[in-house]
Please model this.
Amino acid sequence: MTVRHINPEGLHRSPAFSQAVVVEQPAKTIYIGGQNGVDAEGKVVGPTLGEQSLQAFRRIATILESEGGSLANVVHWRIAVLDGLSFEEGVAAFQQVWDRADPPPAITVHFVAGLGPGFLLEIDAVAVV
Amino acid sequence: MTVRHINPEGLHRSPAFSQAVVVEQPAKTIYIGGQNGVDAEGKVVGPTLGEQSLQAFRRIATILESEGGSLANVVHWRIAVLDGLSFEEGVAAFQQVWDRADPPPAITVHFVAGLGPGFLLEIDAVAVV
Amino acid sequence: MTVRHINPEGLHRSPAFSQAVVVEQPAKTIYIGGQNGVDAEGKVVGPTLGEQSLQAFRRIATILESEGGSLANVVHWRIAVLDGLSFEEGVAAFQQVWDRADPPPAITVHFVAGLGPGFLLEIDAVAVV
Model:
Protein backbone atom coordinates (compact mmCIF):
# COMPACT_ATOMS: atom_id res chain seq x y z
CA MET A 1 0.00 0.00 0.00
CA THR A 2 1.24 3.50 -0.77
CA VAL A 3 -0.14 6.85 0.31
CA ARG A 4 0.87 10.01 -1.53
CA HIS A 5 -0.20 13.54 -0.58
CA ILE A 6 -0.45 15.58 -3.75
CA ASN A 7 -0.55 19.29 -4.64
CA PRO A 8 -0.55 19.30 -8.43
CA GLU A 9 0.90 22.17 -10.44
CA GLY A 10 -1.70 24.93 -10.81
CA LEU A 11 -3.21 24.50 -7.32
CA HIS A 12 -1.97 26.46 -4.37
CA ARG A 13 0.03 24.86 -1.58
CA SER A 14 -0.81 25.22 2.07
CA PRO A 15 0.89 23.96 5.20
CA ALA A 16 -2.61 23.24 6.55
CA PHE A 17 -3.85 20.71 4.02
CA SER A 18 -3.04 18.70 0.92
CA GLN A 19 -5.20 19.11 -2.17
CA ALA A 20 -5.72 15.36 -2.38
CA VAL A 21 -4.37 12.11 -1.06
CA VAL A 22 -3.80 9.08 -3.26
CA VAL A 23 -4.08 5.63 -1.73
CA GLU A 24 -2.96 2.58 -3.63
CA GLN A 25 -4.28 -0.72 -2.39
CA PRO A 26 -4.15 -3.00 -0.57
CA ALA A 27 -4.64 -0.87 2.53
CA LYS A 28 -6.49 -0.87 5.81
CA THR A 29 -9.05 1.91 5.58
CA ILE A 30 -10.57 3.37 8.75
CA TYR A 31 -13.86 5.26 8.59
CA ILE A 32 -14.08 7.51 11.63
CA GLY A 33 -17.53 8.79 12.55
CA GLY A 34 -18.12 12.40 13.51
CA GLN A 35 -16.08 13.11 16.64
CA ASN A 36 -17.04 15.90 19.04
CA GLY A 37 -15.43 17.56 22.02
CA VAL A 38 -16.65 14.97 24.48
CA ASP A 39 -14.93 12.90 27.13
CA ALA A 40 -14.88 9.14 27.64
CA GLU A 41 -18.45 9.28 28.99
CA GLY A 42 -19.73 11.34 26.07
CA LYS A 43 -19.92 14.58 28.07
CA VAL A 44 -18.96 17.87 26.42
CA VAL A 45 -15.50 18.87 27.70
CA GLY A 46 -15.99 22.63 27.67
CA PRO A 47 -17.78 25.58 26.15
CA THR A 48 -15.05 26.84 23.79
CA LEU A 49 -14.28 25.79 20.26
CA GLY A 50 -10.60 25.46 21.20
CA GLU A 51 -11.28 22.90 23.91
CA GLN A 52 -13.75 20.96 21.82
CA SER A 53 -11.47 20.91 18.76
CA LEU A 54 -8.52 19.66 20.75
CA GLN A 55 -10.63 16.92 22.29
CA ALA A 56 -12.07 15.85 18.93
CA PHE A 57 -8.56 15.62 17.46
CA ARG A 58 -7.45 13.59 20.50
CA ARG A 59 -10.36 11.20 20.08
CA ILE A 60 -9.39 10.63 16.46
CA ALA A 61 -5.81 10.00 17.61
CA THR A 62 -7.09 7.50 20.19
CA ILE A 63 -9.03 5.63 17.52
CA LEU A 64 -6.04 5.50 15.21
CA GLU A 65 -3.62 4.48 17.94
CA SER A 66 -5.91 1.60 18.82
CA GLU A 67 -5.28 0.37 15.25
CA GLY A 68 -1.52 0.90 15.25
CA GLY A 69 -1.66 4.31 13.59
CA SER A 70 -1.63 8.00 14.47
CA LEU A 71 -3.14 11.29 13.28
CA ALA A 72 -0.62 11.19 10.43
CA ASN A 73 -2.68 8.37 8.89
CA VAL A 74 -5.73 10.57 8.25
CA VAL A 75 -6.19 11.08 4.50
CA HIS A 76 -9.30 13.27 4.57
CA TRP A 77 -11.19 14.98 7.35
CA ARG A 78 -14.40 16.93 7.16
CA ILE A 79 -14.89 19.59 9.76
CA ALA A 80 -18.30 21.07 10.52
CA VAL A 81 -18.26 24.19 12.68
CA LEU A 82 -21.35 25.75 14.19
CA ASP A 83 -22.45 28.84 12.26
CA GLY A 84 -21.40 32.14 13.78
CA LEU A 85 -18.09 30.86 15.18
CA SER A 86 -14.61 31.48 13.83
CA PHE A 87 -12.52 28.35 13.26
CA GLU A 88 -9.34 30.09 14.47
CA GLU A 89 -9.29 28.21 17.79
CA GLY A 90 -9.72 24.98 15.84
CA VAL A 91 -6.68 25.81 13.74
CA ALA A 92 -4.69 26.45 16.91
CA ALA A 93 -5.81 23.06 18.26
CA PHE A 94 -4.77 21.41 15.01
CA GLN A 95 -1.32 23.00 15.28
CA GLN A 96 -1.05 21.65 18.80
CA VAL A 97 -1.72 18.03 17.84
CA TRP A 98 -0.25 17.88 14.36
CA ASP A 99 3.39 17.05 13.65
CA ARG A 100 4.41 19.54 10.96
CA ALA A 101 6.81 16.97 9.53
CA ASP A 102 3.80 14.93 8.31
CA PRO A 103 2.03 15.81 5.05
CA PRO A 104 -1.42 17.15 6.01
CA PRO A 105 -4.70 15.45 5.02
CA ALA A 106 -7.21 16.64 2.46
CA ILE A 107 -9.80 18.79 4.22
CA THR A 108 -13.39 19.97 3.91
CA VAL A 109 -14.75 22.73 6.16
CA HIS A 110 -18.41 23.73 6.44
CA PHE A 111 -20.20 26.05 8.81
CA VAL A 112 -23.47 24.35 9.64
CA ALA A 113 -26.73 25.54 11.13
CA GLY A 114 -26.68 23.02 13.97
CA LEU A 115 -24.96 20.06 15.60
CA GLY A 116 -25.81 17.79 18.53
CA PRO A 117 -26.60 19.49 21.89
CA GLY A 118 -23.63 21.48 23.18
CA PHE A 119 -21.38 20.63 20.22
CA LEU A 120 -19.50 23.46 18.52
CA LEU A 121 -17.84 21.26 15.92
CA GLU A 122 -17.79 17.76 14.50
CA ILE A 123 -14.93 16.11 12.65
CA ASP A 124 -15.19 12.88 10.71
CA ALA A 125 -12.31 11.30 8.86
CA VAL A 126 -11.03 8.58 6.61
CA ALA A 127 -7.64 7.18 7.49
CA VAL A 128 -5.42 4.61 5.87
CA VAL A 129 -3.06 2.57 8.00
CA MET B 1 -11.58 -8.69 3.47
CA THR B 2 -12.40 -8.04 7.12
CA VAL B 3 -14.59 -5.38 8.68
CA ARG B 4 -14.25 -4.53 12.35
CA HIS B 5 -16.41 -2.04 14.26
CA ILE B 6 -14.30 -0.45 16.95
CA ASN B 7 -14.94 1.50 20.16
CA PRO B 8 -11.49 1.98 21.63
CA GLU B 9 -10.92 2.33 25.36
CA GLY B 10 -11.48 5.95 26.40
CA LEU B 11 -14.33 6.62 23.99
CA HIS B 12 -17.94 6.11 25.00
CA ARG B 13 -20.02 3.26 23.63
CA SER B 14 -23.42 3.71 22.09
CA PRO B 15 -25.93 1.26 20.70
CA ALA B 16 -26.57 3.80 17.93
CA PHE B 17 -23.14 3.99 16.33
CA SER B 18 -19.59 2.71 16.34
CA GLN B 19 -16.74 5.16 16.82
CA ALA B 20 -15.02 3.86 13.70
CA VAL B 21 -15.04 0.96 11.29
CA VAL B 22 -11.88 -0.69 10.04
CA VAL B 23 -11.88 -2.28 6.61
CA GLU B 24 -9.02 -4.46 5.48
CA GLN B 25 -8.72 -5.01 1.76
CA PRO B 26 -9.48 -6.42 -0.66
CA ALA B 27 -13.12 -5.38 -0.42
CA LYS B 28 -15.97 -4.19 -2.59
CA THR B 29 -16.63 -0.60 -1.55
CA ILE B 30 -19.98 1.02 -2.36
CA TYR B 31 -20.29 4.82 -2.40
CA ILE B 32 -23.95 5.69 -1.93
CA GLY B 33 -24.98 9.19 -2.95
CA GLY B 34 -27.26 11.31 -0.77
CA GLN B 35 -30.58 9.49 -0.42
CA ASN B 36 -33.78 11.34 0.38
CA GLY B 37 -37.31 10.38 1.30
CA VAL B 38 -38.42 9.91 -2.29
CA ASP B 39 -40.17 7.09 -4.12
CA ALA B 40 -39.13 5.21 -7.26
CA GLU B 41 -40.10 8.22 -9.38
CA GLY B 42 -38.16 10.66 -7.22
CA LYS B 43 -41.27 12.14 -5.56
CA VAL B 44 -41.14 13.05 -1.88
CA VAL B 45 -43.01 10.36 0.10
CA GLY B 46 -44.42 12.57 2.83
CA PRO B 47 -44.05 15.72 4.88
CA THR B 48 -42.64 14.26 8.09
CA LEU B 49 -39.06 13.50 9.01
CA GLY B 50 -40.11 10.02 10.15
CA GLU B 51 -41.52 9.06 6.75
CA GLN B 52 -38.62 10.56 4.86
CA SER B 53 -36.00 8.93 7.11
CA LEU B 54 -37.59 5.51 6.78
CA GLN B 55 -37.72 5.85 3.01
CA ALA B 56 -34.10 7.02 2.77
CA PHE B 57 -32.98 4.03 4.85
CA ARG B 58 -35.04 1.72 2.62
CA ARG B 59 -33.45 3.16 -0.49
CA ILE B 60 -30.01 2.49 0.93
CA ALA B 61 -31.13 -1.05 1.72
CA THR B 62 -32.38 -1.44 -1.86
CA ILE B 63 -29.03 -0.32 -3.24
CA LEU B 64 -27.13 -2.69 -1.00
CA GLU B 65 -29.44 -5.64 -1.69
CA SER B 66 -28.88 -5.12 -5.41
CA GLU B 67 -25.19 -5.81 -4.67
CA GLY B 68 -25.72 -8.83 -2.46
CA GLY B 69 -25.56 -6.88 0.80
CA SER B 70 -27.83 -5.27 3.38
CA LEU B 71 -27.91 -2.24 5.68
CA ALA B 72 -25.50 -4.13 7.93
CA ASN B 73 -22.79 -3.48 5.32
CA VAL B 74 -22.81 0.29 5.82
CA VAL B 75 -19.53 1.38 7.45
CA HIS B 76 -20.20 5.14 7.64
CA TRP B 77 -23.24 7.26 7.00
CA ARG B 78 -23.56 11.01 7.05
CA ILE B 79 -26.95 12.38 7.89
CA ALA B 80 -27.94 15.95 7.12
CA VAL B 81 -31.15 17.14 8.75
CA LEU B 82 -32.89 20.39 7.90
CA ASP B 83 -32.23 23.05 10.52
CA GLY B 84 -35.03 23.52 13.05
CA LEU B 85 -36.10 19.87 13.09
CA SER B 86 -35.40 17.31 15.78
CA PHE B 87 -33.84 14.05 14.56
CA GLU B 88 -35.92 11.96 16.99
CA GLU B 89 -38.19 10.62 14.27
CA GLY B 90 -35.11 9.69 12.27
CA VAL B 91 -33.77 7.69 15.21
CA ALA B 92 -37.10 5.88 15.43
CA ALA B 93 -36.90 5.07 11.72
CA PHE B 94 -33.37 3.78 12.18
CA GLN B 95 -34.55 1.50 14.99
CA GLN B 96 -37.26 0.18 12.70
CA VAL B 97 -34.87 -0.83 9.91
CA TRP B 98 -31.77 -1.75 11.85
CA ASP B 99 -31.12 -5.23 13.24
CA ARG B 100 -29.73 -4.61 16.72
CA ALA B 101 -27.62 -7.75 16.40
CA ASP B 102 -25.44 -5.94 13.82
CA PRO B 103 -22.64 -3.58 14.91
CA PRO B 104 -23.74 -0.06 13.94
CA PRO B 105 -21.87 2.11 11.40
CA ALA B 106 -19.79 5.19 12.11
CA ILE B 107 -22.04 8.24 11.86
CA THR B 108 -21.90 11.96 11.18
CA VAL B 109 -24.92 14.18 11.82
CA HIS B 110 -25.25 17.83 10.74
CA PHE B 111 -28.17 20.19 10.77
CA VAL B 112 -27.97 22.12 7.52
CA ALA B 113 -29.52 25.36 6.31
CA GLY B 114 -31.13 23.76 3.27
CA LEU B 115 -31.60 20.65 1.14
CA GLY B 116 -33.31 19.96 -2.18
CA PRO B 117 -36.97 21.03 -2.53
CA GLY B 118 -39.21 19.23 -0.04
CA PHE B 119 -36.37 17.24 1.53
CA LEU B 120 -36.08 17.16 5.31
CA LEU B 121 -32.98 14.98 5.41
CA GLU B 122 -30.32 13.45 3.23
CA ILE B 123 -28.21 10.39 4.01
CA ASP B 124 -25.13 9.33 2.11
CA ALA B 125 -23.08 6.29 2.97
CA VAL B 126 -20.05 4.18 2.33
CA ALA B 127 -20.60 0.45 2.52
CA VAL B 128 -18.30 -2.51 2.20
CA VAL B 129 -19.63 -5.81 0.91
CA MET C 1 -10.28 -3.16 -10.29
CA THR C 2 -13.80 -2.61 -11.57
CA VAL C 3 -16.08 0.38 -11.15
CA ARG C 4 -19.80 0.04 -11.74
CA HIS C 5 -22.33 2.87 -11.57
CA ILE C 6 -25.62 1.47 -10.35
CA ASN C 7 -29.27 2.56 -10.36
CA PRO C 8 -31.11 -0.40 -8.89
CA GLU C 9 -34.70 -1.19 -9.78
CA GLY C 10 -37.04 0.86 -7.61
CA LEU C 11 -34.87 3.99 -7.55
CA HIS C 12 -35.26 6.75 -10.07
CA ARG C 13 -32.69 7.38 -12.78
CA SER C 14 -31.17 10.75 -13.48
CA PRO C 15 -28.70 11.93 -16.09
CA ALA C 16 -27.13 14.05 -13.33
CA PHE C 17 -26.04 11.35 -10.90
CA SER C 18 -25.86 7.64 -10.19
CA GLN C 19 -27.52 6.27 -7.07
CA ALA C 20 -24.31 4.53 -6.06
CA VAL C 21 -20.95 3.47 -7.40
CA VAL C 22 -19.43 0.09 -6.70
CA VAL C 23 -15.67 -0.24 -6.60
CA GLU C 24 -14.02 -3.62 -6.50
CA GLN C 25 -10.42 -3.70 -5.37
CA PRO C 26 -7.57 -3.41 -5.92
CA ALA C 27 -7.89 0.23 -6.94
CA LYS C 28 -6.14 3.55 -6.54
CA THR C 29 -8.46 5.70 -4.43
CA ILE C 30 -8.06 9.49 -4.45
CA TYR C 31 -9.51 11.56 -1.61
CA ILE C 32 -9.96 15.12 -2.87
CA GLY C 33 -10.34 17.81 -0.23
CA GLY C 34 -12.97 20.53 -0.48
CA GLN C 35 -12.27 22.51 -3.66
CA ASN C 36 -13.45 26.09 -4.06
CA GLY C 37 -13.59 28.59 -6.88
CA VAL C 38 -10.02 29.78 -6.40
CA ASP C 39 -7.08 30.19 -8.74
CA ALA C 40 -3.57 28.77 -8.51
CA GLU C 41 -2.73 31.31 -5.79
CA GLY C 42 -5.85 30.53 -3.76
CA LYS C 43 -7.67 33.73 -4.75
CA VAL C 44 -11.41 33.59 -5.40
CA VAL C 45 -11.97 33.70 -9.18
CA GLY C 46 -15.22 35.65 -9.18
CA PRO C 47 -18.36 36.58 -7.32
CA THR C 48 -20.84 34.24 -9.04
CA LEU C 49 -21.70 30.65 -8.25
CA GLY C 50 -21.27 29.79 -11.94
CA GLU C 51 -17.66 30.97 -12.05
CA GLN C 52 -16.79 29.38 -8.74
CA SER C 53 -18.43 26.05 -9.63
CA LEU C 54 -16.62 25.86 -12.96
CA GLN C 55 -13.31 26.58 -11.30
CA ALA C 56 -13.89 24.02 -8.54
CA PHE C 57 -14.69 21.35 -11.16
CA ARG C 58 -11.55 22.34 -13.11
CA ARG C 59 -9.43 22.01 -9.99
CA ILE C 60 -10.77 18.52 -9.40
CA ALA C 61 -9.97 17.71 -13.04
CA THR C 62 -6.43 19.06 -12.55
CA ILE C 63 -5.93 16.84 -9.53
CA LEU C 64 -7.19 13.77 -11.35
CA GLU C 65 -5.19 14.49 -14.50
CA SER C 66 -2.06 14.69 -12.37
CA GLU C 67 -2.77 11.06 -11.42
CA GLY C 68 -3.55 9.82 -14.92
CA GLY C 69 -7.32 10.21 -14.56
CA SER C 70 -10.10 12.64 -15.40
CA LEU C 71 -13.41 13.86 -13.95
CA ALA C 72 -14.92 10.58 -15.14
CA ASN C 73 -13.04 8.84 -12.32
CA VAL C 74 -14.99 10.59 -9.56
CA VAL C 75 -17.20 8.07 -7.74
CA HIS C 76 -18.82 10.42 -5.19
CA TRP C 77 -18.80 14.13 -4.76
CA ARG C 78 -20.31 16.19 -1.99
CA ILE C 79 -21.33 19.70 -2.88
CA ALA C 80 -21.95 22.36 -0.24
CA VAL C 81 -23.63 25.53 -1.50
CA LEU C 82 -23.98 28.67 0.55
CA ASP C 83 -27.50 29.05 1.93
CA GLY C 84 -29.75 31.39 -0.02
CA LEU C 85 -28.25 30.60 -3.42
CA SER C 86 -29.73 28.44 -6.15
CA PHE C 87 -27.47 25.69 -7.49
CA GLU C 88 -28.66 26.22 -11.07
CA GLU C 89 -25.44 27.90 -12.15
CA GLY C 90 -23.52 25.01 -10.63
CA VAL C 91 -25.53 22.53 -12.67
CA ALA C 92 -24.74 24.55 -15.81
CA ALA C 93 -21.03 24.45 -14.91
CA PHE C 94 -21.26 20.69 -14.37
CA GLN C 95 -22.80 20.28 -17.82
CA GLN C 96 -19.95 22.30 -19.28
CA VAL C 97 -17.21 20.09 -17.84
CA TRP C 98 -18.89 16.70 -17.82
CA ASP C 99 -18.82 14.32 -20.76
CA ARG C 100 -22.37 12.97 -20.96
CA ALA C 101 -21.03 9.68 -22.29
CA ASP C 102 -19.59 8.96 -18.82
CA PRO C 103 -21.78 7.50 -16.04
CA PRO C 104 -22.17 10.25 -13.42
CA PRO C 105 -20.89 9.97 -9.85
CA ALA C 106 -22.96 9.52 -6.70
CA ILE C 107 -23.74 12.95 -5.28
CA THR C 108 -24.61 14.70 -2.03
CA VAL C 109 -25.82 18.31 -1.99
CA HIS C 110 -26.24 20.45 1.12
CA PHE C 111 -26.96 24.12 1.56
CA VAL C 112 -24.78 25.27 4.43
CA ALA C 113 -24.81 28.31 6.68
CA GLY C 114 -21.25 29.32 5.85
CA LEU C 115 -18.03 28.50 4.01
CA GLY C 116 -14.58 30.07 3.92
CA PRO C 117 -14.36 33.81 3.14
CA GLY C 118 -15.72 34.61 -0.32
CA PHE C 119 -16.61 30.99 -1.12
CA LEU C 120 -20.06 30.25 -2.52
CA LEU C 121 -19.56 26.51 -2.77
CA GLU C 122 -17.18 23.72 -1.84
CA ILE C 123 -16.88 20.33 -3.54
CA ASP C 124 -15.00 17.38 -2.15
CA ALA C 125 -14.75 14.03 -3.87
CA VAL C 126 -13.59 10.46 -3.82
CA ALA C 127 -12.24 9.15 -7.10
CA VAL C 128 -10.97 5.77 -8.19
CA VAL C 129 -8.37 5.54 -10.93
